[in-house]
Amino acid sequence: MAGGVVKVKELDWLRDDLCTDPEVPFSWSQEDVSDLYSHTTILLAAEVFYDDDLTDALFKTLSRLVHKLKNACTAILSVEKRLNFTLRHLDVTCEAYDHFRSWLQRLERLADGRLRFVVEPVEASFPQLLVYERIQQLELWKIFVEPVM
């Protein structure tokens, strides 16, 4: 598609608001914020679920964003089941993955009356256009968010 525009903007999950300070690199102008809420239909996050606090912050940011969007949207998330031996369990566990999945379950049960969240895994059987090792521990998830009528 010729003529497209790519803009890079800061999205700090640990902040409650978008940075609109014009002195800060990659900050949001009022036009950018308006465009975000008026036209966004797809959100992507890849390889960002490895710390529980950051996972919490990402899902809270996702919730804040989708509550302000004017259109239904789809979030595509990738997560890797990182196996770790923990002294607490004296076993190999995937604690960050389990925390991620608990957030997906919370979204599915969310009943705030304004939005409906449909969560489903994405089968990774699509053609590979780049050469990479597709490991079994990598999962893709789709969250479809739409207003409740």
UniProtKB/TrEMBL annotation:
It comes from Neomonachus schauinslandi (Hawaiian monk seal). InterPro entries: METTL22, SAM-dependent_MTases_sf. GO terms for molecular function: protein methyltransferase activity. GO terms for cellular component: nucleus. Keywords: Acetylation. This is Methyltransferase-like protein 22. The gene is METTL22. Signal peptide: none annotated. The keyword Nucleotide-binding does not apply. It comes from the Eukaryota.
